[in-house]
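[Primary structure, fold]
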Amino acid sequence: MPEFLLQRRRLLLAAAGSLALILLLGRFVLGAGTTTTAAPLPPPTAMAGVTGLPSSRVVVDVVGAVRRPGLYRLAHGSRVADAVTRAGGATSKAELAQVNLAAPLADGEQVVIPRRGLGGGASASSPEAAPGPVQLSTATLEQLDSLPGVGPVTAQKILDYRQKHGAFQSVDELDAVPGIGPKRLDQLRDLVVP
């Protein structure tokens, strides 16, 4: 009986070795004309959330005097004018002179297109009362200059900062603009929005 088990074991080992040899030869013979490559890496936009790379798209909220207000995805580097166009364009009541259409968009930004004649309580004693807070990310030099304690030089510094760093994400970013310190920031906090 032990001799029978020994022969059986040899037979199983020989069969296993033959099978491995056949598989190995089959792989080389059948796969000789093909090559295998590693799977390609996903494009950077697909990896943006994982690796921290900047996304190639921004999402903005377009409101006010536009035909189709709402959230829109735009290519990174788009301008306010692009967002207004995606929202169906400005209505006939839009006051586009109050908006910097050339300002770059930042992800999460709200683009407000004001309506003509909505001064929010402007009276004869204050004919040029602002319709609301000044939007730092889209304001013109004249709008920034109209803020208390901000002259044309500081207004230009704000525009330069915005051009270099993109749209404002927070009013607190004004502290990084030369000429605006904590005291001036507190004075402007209720008059401006990012």
Observations:
- Residues 45-51, 119-130 have pLDDT under 50 and may be disordered.
- The radius of gyration is 33 Å.
- The chain has six helices and five strands.
